[in-house]
Design a protein that fits this description.
The protein is of the alpha/beta class. The chain folds into four domains: 183 residues, Alpha-Beta Complex (inorganic pyrophosphatase (n-terminal core)); 98 residues, CBS-domain, CATH 3.10.580; 104 residues, HprK N-terminal domain-like (Udp-n-acetylmuramoylalanyl-d-glutamate--2,6- Diaminopimelate Ligase, Chain: A, domain 1, 3-Layer(aba) Sandwich); 121 residues, DHHA2 domain (Diaminopimelate Epimerase, Chain A, domain 1, Roll). Helices cover 37% and strands 21% of the residues. Strand 14 and strand 15 form a beta hairpin.
Length: 555
């Protein structure tokens, strides 16, 4: 089963590069089924890094909750509407099935056929002496069901309504019965009884079936040819032959054409609600074109397999791909605070270390495993480290980051200093994106002491563009907080050159009065020396919340 390696929502360069590199390491070691994924398109800087590294972006997956396409049985056993009882019954018996979907020969779904419905085909019309004898079939199907041999064949593939008459009476009585029905509709079953076979052939019946392994005499066979009568020799006795002929009836009258079908894109949870009150046991699953993709049963929906995820660059479910709370999270590789929302049924591998970049942790695993990264993957990991540490100038930078970046430079085949310069010159969010996209580009949500809030961060060269757009950016923050039902939203605009930031807020909660940075104007603060959301801004917000929630001292 595929294991998805996911960065956080609204992924930055470190999240996407860590997912790509760790999936590559897993594919080369323990998990060949690992696939890098992300729940948002890369920003322009990340696209630049991947282009330089000649790597395709991760697969975009916005929701990992399983849908029916993920869990249905695609190699399903089917029946066709022009088949007969015997063919379908043998197939269902072989595969121990109680129901099968029915298609036409163009692959279109006709409906559903259950074993109970199928059994009704054999006994169809038993209360009516005429209908009970009627068999809609073809000569070739009847001969196949009887495992017989054709001694003379006329239009064997033609479908028709045949009336079965068993020659188990006197010749006089049989002859009288023959003339009660059109000859072209009659199928006569007879043992080694020339007195029955002769009037049947003279009457020109459609089919004569000779039972018990007997053959027609040469003279009677010649008469059959003259009168265009099809002759089948059956090795079974008359009673068995007659029952088998009934099992050559077409199944189309038993098809449930009004059965419930389910779209392949329907989430499993929604499908479970739809089918729980249905008496139907098996449900055809259809693709976007209405063609059968597979089948699913109620039991399949009761405990479907869960998607398997590895989280990189985050450990809080509020930042994870939609549906992560319903998945099996088997590993976490991160360098942020512990959010406390993650749960698992089994012990998992959890790597969380105070370094500047998740790509540092991934690269260290390459080195520990004695595996040299390819130049593409080396530059990919270097990009994540350069981005998250502002090329080792951020206060989050550690000696481990410096050591790992130096190690990667030996594989990347590029001048990393020049690459870093070009990387930060590319893709100003303020120059190329709408205000709404800017505040969502690298946005993480947090919950602390009952307060729900988000912190977005962008890196720019200078603040000129910010001043031009501060009004619309504030409106976008307000809309983001309203849309996601947050208490407030923050945008940290970092100047890569000066190593300082401006902080724009959707609103200023009461606890914010204790902030120790200068207010430039309403909702806007200057944060000198603050460049890290993780190590500087988030701890600041948490400290203010802690102080606000502590009981006042009594003098």
């Amino acid at each position: 089963m595929t294991v998805y390696v996911f960065g956080h929502r609204n992924p930055d360069t470190d999240a996407i590069c860590a997912a790509l590199a760790y999936a590559d390491l897993l594919q080369r070691t323990s998990r060949p089924d690992a696939v890098a994924a992300c729940c948002g398109a890369p920003n322009q800087r990340t696209e630049y890094a991947l282009r330089r590294a000649r790597l395709a972006p991760p697969r975009i997956v916005m929701d990992v909750r399983p849908d029916l396409a993920d869990v249905c049985h695609r190699e399903s056993i089917v029946a066709y509407d022009d088949e007969v009882f015997h063919e379908v019954y043998e197939r269902m018996k072989e595969h121990h099935l109680g129901a099968v979907p029915v298609l036409d020969r163009q692959g279109r779904l006709r409906g559903l056929l259950t074993l109970l419905d199928l059994l009704k085909v054999v006994f169809e019309g038993d209360s009516d002496p005429v209908l009970s004898r009627q068999v809609t079939s073809s000569v070739v199907k009847i001969c196949s069901v009887l495992q017989g041999e054709l001694r003379h064949a006329v239009e064997v593939d033609e479908w028709s309504d045949l009336l079965v008459i068993v020659g188990a009476m006197s010749a006089e009585g049989f002859t009288q019965r023959l003339h009660q029905f059109p000859a072209g509709q009659l199928l006569v079953v007879s043992g080694d009884r020339p007195t029955i076979q002769l009037p049947a052939l003279e009457h020109g019946v459609r089919v004569l079936v000779v039972t018990g392994g007997y053959e027609l005499s040469p003279g009677l066979l010649q008469l059959a040819k003259l009168n265009s009568v099809t002759v089948i020799c059956s090795g079974y006795d008359t009673a068995t032959t007659t029952m088998r002929i009934k099992s050559a009836r077409r199944i189309d009258s038993a098809i449930q054409v009004d059965c419930m079908t389910l779209p392949a894109t329907l989430p499993v949870a929604d499908a479970r609600k739809q089918v729980e009150r249905s008496r139907q046991k098996l449900f055809p699953v259809l693709d976007d074109h209405g063609k059968l993709l597979g089948v699913i049963s109620k039991s399949d929906l009761s405990n479907p397999p869960k998607p398997k995820l590895i989280l990189v660059d985050h450990n809080e479910l509020s930042q994870a791909v939609t549906g992560a709370d319903e998945a099996d999270i088997i590993e976490v590789l991160d360098h942020h605070r512990l959010g406390g929302s993650l749960r698992s049924d089994q012990p998992i591998r959890f790597v969380n270390e105070p370094v500047g970049s998740t790509c540092t942790l991934v690269a260290r695993q390459f080195r520990a495993a004695g595996i040299d990264p390819t130049p593409n993957i080396a530059l990919c990991m270097a990009s994540g480290i350069i981005s998250d540490t502002l090329n080792l100038r951020s206060p989050t930078t550690t000696d481990v980051d410096r050591d790992i970046l130096k190690w990667l430079s030996g594989f990347a085949n590029v001048d990393l200093e020049q690459f870093a310069k070009e990387f930060f010159e590319v893709g100003s969010a303020l120059r190329s994106q709408s205000a709404g996209a800017v505040v969502r580009e690298d946005c993480k949500e947090f919950v602390d002491r009952g307060q729900c809030f988000s912190i977005s961060q962008i890196e720019e060269i200078g603040f000129e563009l910010f001043w031009e757009r501060s009004g619309e950016l504030h409106e976008a923050l307000v809309e983001l907080a309203r849309e996601r039902k947050l208490d407030f939203s923050l945008l940290l605009v970092t100047d890569i050159i000066s190593n300082g930031s401006l902080l724009l807020m959707s609103s200023e909660p009461a606890f914010w009065e204790e902030i120790n940075f200068p207010c430039l104007e309403r909702h806007l603060y200057k944060l000198e020396g603050v460049v890290s959301r993780k190590k500087q801004l988030l701890p600041l917000v948490s400290k203010l919340l802690q102080n606000a929630s502590s009981p006042s001292e009594i003098g």
